[in-house]
Each structure stands twice: as C-alpha cells, then as structure tokens.
Amino acid sequence: MALIEIKNLSKIYGEGQENEVRALDGVSLSIERGEFVAVVGASGSGKSTMMNILGCLDVPTRGSYLLDGIPTHHRSERELADIRGRKIGFIFQGYNLIPSLSVWKNVALPLTYQGVGERERKARALEALAAMGIADRADSRPMVLSGGQQQRVAVARAIATRSPILMADEPTGALDSKTGGQVLQILRDLNRAGTTVILITHDNGIAAKAARVVRLSDGRIVEDQQNTPDELCPVGDNFSRAPAVERGD
Ligand SMILES: Nc1ncnc2c1ncn2[C@@H]1O[C@H](COP(=O)(O)OP(=O)(O)O)[C@@H](O)[C@H]1O
Ligand SMILES: [Mg+2]
C-alpha cells in the first residue's frame, strides 16, 4: 500500500460564495515509501494547500486521503495533530520559528508532541543543530540569526523528529544558491537514509533534482514525471555529505 494516497481531493475556500477559490480541484496522487517528490507550480497553483493537507495541517473539502493506510480526511484537530506528530517533519515557508524560545528549544518543541522526555529532547535538538553546523547558536534567540541560519534551525527542527516523512515548503526560497544547495543536499541525504521527502517549490531547477516531479496548475496535476537518475544531482556533488555544512552565510 502506498504511503500517501489521495483520491479526487478538492480544497475550496469560501465554497458557494462569490469569492470561492478552488485551490485544489480533484487531485489524485500516490506516493510510495522512500520517494523524493517535488511538487512544482506557479504561485497560486495550490502547492501550499497541498502540503497543508498532505501534512494533516488542514482537511480537504472533498475527496479522500490515506496516510500509511489511515484515513485522515474526517479527523478532529487533535487526531490530526497526533498523526502529524508520529509521521511528519515540516520545513515551512518562512521558517516559523518562535522568537521567544531559544534556538534549541525551537528545535526540541515538536518532540514534546511525540512524548520525548526533556533530557532526550535537548540531546536530540543539539545533535540536529550540530548536523546543521549551528550547534554554537543553540542558546541564541532565532531572530539574531541570519536568514540562512534560521533556515538551518528550521531544518534541524524537522530532522530532530526523525519522522518517516519530511515535507518542505520552498525550503530554499529565501536562501542564496550555495546555502540552498546545502539544504537540498541534506534533504537528499535524508532521503537516501530512507526518509520520504516531499519538496514544494516554484523553481523548476530545484524540482529537477528530485526523482519525481508533480506539477500543479490551477489546482490540478498537469504532469507527473520520473526523472532518470543521470538527471539527478549535480548540486550535491560540490558538498561533502550532510553534516559538514559550512558556517558564515
Ligand atoms: N486561506 C485561504 N483562503 C482563501 N483562499 C486561499 C487561502 N489559502 C490559499 N488560498 C488561495 O488558493 C490558491 C492556492 O494557494 P496556495 O496553495 O497558497 O498556492 P501556492 O502555494 O502554489 O502559491 C490561491 O489562489 C490562493 O489565493
Ligand atoms: Mg505556497
């Protein structure tokens, strides 16, 4: 059974009203364990709406969504939070770091929802920050960091959960190409280690690094293509494997 299975899924904002928006319009898609899928499309095509639903942050207006065989489309907020906590790590567009918490507490926060004890939370947060090359900023507040550093904190927060699925919404959008390439390489390393990665991007060049590209246009899937292996890469080859991220952005 597929890890992610959506059928005839629609998300309609303001249905029946004058300003109704069909953000997703009858989308069907299945994703197997271990895939690296880029969801690509122009601004407004429905990418974030798709990630919110796939990530159990929102529910569809119509259609079904099975995650690991579990129906998610009629769940309560609390049940969705529980499914998310067990299955999905997120890298949000715009980091979503909490300004009043230190960097390591930001990274540790999702682990509280997984029921991880306090000592282990801190250890795992520090380990993830070290993997991203920013362990020395663990006690800083996020807002004093550069954009690239904040994105690394956001990636650390996602990888600390050790979730089987990682969803990233424009994770390289605000980064220079070098830092962006490093983040992409980290996602690929996680994928090689078994994590299913869903990468949302409006950038075709970045999407081309994924093994599979799903293209959205006006809330519909207009293309679903496997990339041949030799089209994979070059980005990563300039960098050593994940944890050795350079500092100074
Ligand atoms: N909460 C909302 N209420 C009303 N319309 C929304 C809402 N969120 C997104 N939309 C609309 O749905 C469409 C798809 O948006 P979105 O999923 O954010 O696209 P993308 O991430 O590809 O830019 C857009 O027309 C957007 O304006
Ligand atoms: Mg978006």
What descriptive keywords fit this protein?
single chain, 249 residues, alpha/beta, Rossmann fold, six-stranded mixed sheet, 7 helices, 10 strands, 25% strand, disordered C terminus, binds adenosine-5'-diphosphate, binds magnesium ion
List the topology elements:
Blueprint: E1 4-13, E2 21-31, E3 36-40, H1 47-54, E4 62-67, E5 70-71, H2 77-87, E6 88-91, H3 103-113, H4 118-131, H5 147-160, E7 165-169, H6 177-192, E8 196-201, H7 204-207, E9 212-217, E10 220-226
Parallel strand pairs: 3-8, 3-9, 6-7, 7-8
Antiparallel strand pairs: 1-2, 1-4, 4-5, 9-10
Adenosine-5'-diphosphate binds next to strand 2 and helix 1.
Give an overview of the whole structure.
- The protein has helices spanning 47-54, 77-87, 103-113, 118-131, 147-160, 177-192, 204-207, and strands at residues 4-13, 21-31, 36-40, 62-67, 70-71, 88-91, 165-169, 196-201, 212-217, 220-226.
- Mean pLDDT is 88; it is low at 229-249.
- It is 31% helix and 25% strand.
- With 249 residues, it is α/β, with parallel strands linked by helices.
- The protein has one domain (4-238): Rossmann fold.
- The strands form 2 sheets. A 6-stranded mixed sheet has the order 6-7-8-3-9-10, with helices on both faces.
- It is built from 7 helices and 10 strands.
- Adenosine-5'-diphosphate binds at residues 13, 21, 23, 41, 43-49.
